[in-house]
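Session log. Operator J.P. requested a structure for one protein chain; no other inputs attached. Running the standard single-chain path with token output.
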Amino acid sequence: MNRQEIIASIALSKLKGLNLLNARTLVEAMGSASEVLAHRKDIVKMIPNVSQRLVEAFADVDVALKEAEQEMEFVEKKNLKVFTLMDEDYPGRLRECEDAPLVLFYCGSADLNSPHIINMVGTRKCSEYGKEICKNFIADLKRMAPDIVIVSGLAYGIDICAHRAALDNGMATVGVLAHGLDTIYPTMHRQTAGEMVHQGGGLLTEYTTHTEPEKLNFVRRNRIVAGLSDACIVVESAKKGGSLITAELAMDYNREVFAFPGRVYDEHSIGCNNLIKQHQATLLTDAKDFLETMGWMTADVKKPEAIQQELFPDLTDEEKALLNTLKDVDEKHINQIAIDTNIPYSRASMILFDLEMKGLVKALGGARYKRCRM
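Structure written below.
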């Protein structure tokens, strides 16, 4: 790491009168953040037509440099990675975005310039439907394209479901934070965050230590989630929400946007359905569909049914019959299951319990069952 350039970049990012676009313009014009600070008194001479407000932004530069030095001490103590805008390792996709941060703080090992990066976002109040989508979609991605990095925001709902599904399937997953790396918000996701770092993923932020997770920070964080990725996948979203902001940003950055459809009257699917209806997102139903659209499908893969038969070759005829009657349906009442399979109710109940213990069937309550995907 170029210590001087990091400190200069942090200091520039802390100048209250200097917005991101102006800061980037200065860095690119003068070659580095260090050069900007070294020649800050000569900016008017070096960059014609520069505004007086921009010149005045450097009035508090000594305070910003002191804060940057303190931040650097934290970085070195915690052995964090720092990417400045001109670094070779700075995420290339994000650098294409005009509002990319001057500096990024990173704890992790996932390659932020990996060939295939996607983000999965959605409502904080996700349903079982949304959770199942995350679980099944990412499991299928692992089977078909295991090198994909999953990005999200470590928030409640779809975000954390996507991270945990990635961890369950041994895939790298990166959380983009709305605060510094000295804390984790929400605190109940601390363990998951630790697992992400230790299992080949990471935590990324533009914010320094002691930054409060304020509402505006989460909105600003969304541009990094969108900019890091090749594609944005919206799983569940109400009519308004942060995931729709991320999708809009992805469109602005010329990224691919996908949405899983939901029931017409489902409050948490209105946003996804509207994206599809307005031709702002491609309707998505499964991983194979996604990979083919992205051009990432490189080889034939076995169907989930074939894998399931290999993993459970010793199922009885009755167990197979019950699984077959639950195929291609959302759920089914045990009475209907007994009728369809011609298996007595009491016997069907016992078999369903056994299948539930094997992880092949899920009880939904009210004597309703659904088949689990592998």
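Operator note: The chain has a mean pLDDT of 90.
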